[in-house]
Amino acid sequence: MTSADYIPLRPIPLKDRSAIVFLEYGQLDVLDGAFVLIDQTGIRVQIPVGGLACLMLEPGTRISHAAVVLCAQVGCLLVWVGEGGVRLYSAGQPGGARAEKLLFQARNALDEEARLNVVRNMFRRRFGEDPPSRRSVDQLRGMEGIRVREIYKQLALRHGVDWHARHYDPASWDSADIPNRCLSSATACLYGLSEAAILAAGYAPAIGFLHRGKPQSFVYDIADLYKFETVVPIAFATAARIAKGQGTDGSPERQVRIACRDSFRKFGLLEKIIPDIEETLLAGGLAPPDEAEDAPEAADPAIPRTEASGDDGHRG
Questions:
Q1: Which of 55, 75, 91 is a domain's end point?
Q2: Tens digits of per-residue pLDDT, 30-78?
Q3: Can you give the CATH number for the domain in which 79 is found?
């Protein structure tokens, strides 16, 4: 086969992928063309990164340059997390923000009326009712916090979990109670998946609306849309089983991660996130981006843009 006959593979769309895989204690590398995890005894386990949305790398993992490159090529997000999937340290960027989408996101975030419209839409989606009129973003944030605390209390009562408050010390993870450890692990799974979807769609994780000032502000915004439909009930149900001595083998964090993985597949979460991101931003009321509309002063690129492959934000 000549180079002219070679047809590059198109990355699998995010909605058709499996959600997340957690890896620990091993060297990640590319051997014989395959992405593998090699343990201390030299045993290889092949990881199908092309069919995954996100890899969570826990302490004890080391990754080669070739492995990072392959993940970037196939659009698999790498996230470096603490033990059990809590405490997000860093994340890669397998895609690249689409200029027209990034500018549209920024326009909505900088226009106060559009930002308020987006926040009101997110409030409506989360709680199934219109927020009160003439409320600022800060006021809606306060109302949201009150409702979230009440939902935690109600879920704890429903599952028979001894609940005091949402609190843990990142510097002393094991000192937290089981419900808080389960909640942190569950939300970490959702944050990783949400960030992978945001990047795949060509948007910026840092440009948020309800949340501001964090590298993952928009991740928190989008994840909150699904939190109480997916991971929070799972966390309380897992904590309840553990309290009754009915938990499966493994740490509370591992039990939650497995339950979240199965729930994401059942809920079809990956199929929902990207369309929901676009719908959320359109709620701002601004005109949607037009990729064909070129700036009159723009010069033609030296290297013409090739046809996009994979999702919108994919660089391939």
A1: 91
A2: 999 899 999 989 999 999 999 999 999 989 999 999 999 999 888 899 9
A3: 3.100.10.20
